[in-house]
Amino acid sequence: xxxxxxxxxxxxxxxxxxxxxxxxxxxxxxxxxxxxxxxxxxxxxxxxxxxxxxxxxxxxxxxxxxxxxxxxxxxxxxxxxxxxxxxxxxxxxxxxxxxxxxxxxxxxxxxxxxxxxxxxxxxxxxxxxxxxxxxxxxxxxxxxxxxxxxxxxxxxxxxxxxxxxxxxxxxxxxxxxxxxxxxxxxxxxxxxxxxxxxxxxxxxxxxxxxxxxxxxxxxxxxxxxxxxxxxxxxxxxxxxxx
Length: 242
Description:
single chain
């Protein structure tokens, strides 16, 4: 009885082993072969090569080149012109008063301003007032403005003391020689809805000056220019500065 049971168990184990081997063999045979990683890399590089070559040799259209060139030129222009928002002023009549002898009006300047620190003196029109500013008890600048009229803000003229070492004549297109100084200036400009003209007063001694006329209305600007030029002509500075 024991022999028969042992024989049955032995046969069962052999059959099970054969069946397991056959199953494993079938699974291995049915799986696809793995592709070597090196082979995959070669195939991908070969497929991309003509695309890369085509991309590198592709030319930009002429229109696109022109747009790129135009953009670069504008960018360089903006970098070289920090005051690009300032534009040359043209009045409605395309006319402004030139800084010439016939346009210098001193007869309508009734009042005198004087500063004791540099003995600065100049005349200013009737109906105007002023406020001066000092640094370390020395004159830094003085502002004159018109008290009569309906213009807001009112016209004003500002005189400022400046360091003569910062003077750059290339910034100005015109000049006029007086007895004790030379003035440098450009045409009037239009900035922030205001018409302005800047005059640089170049002396032969220690200090220089800048004087500005700033007005909102077109007609009033042209009417005030002769008085503005007259104020510059009446400028006097003592204590060895001029």
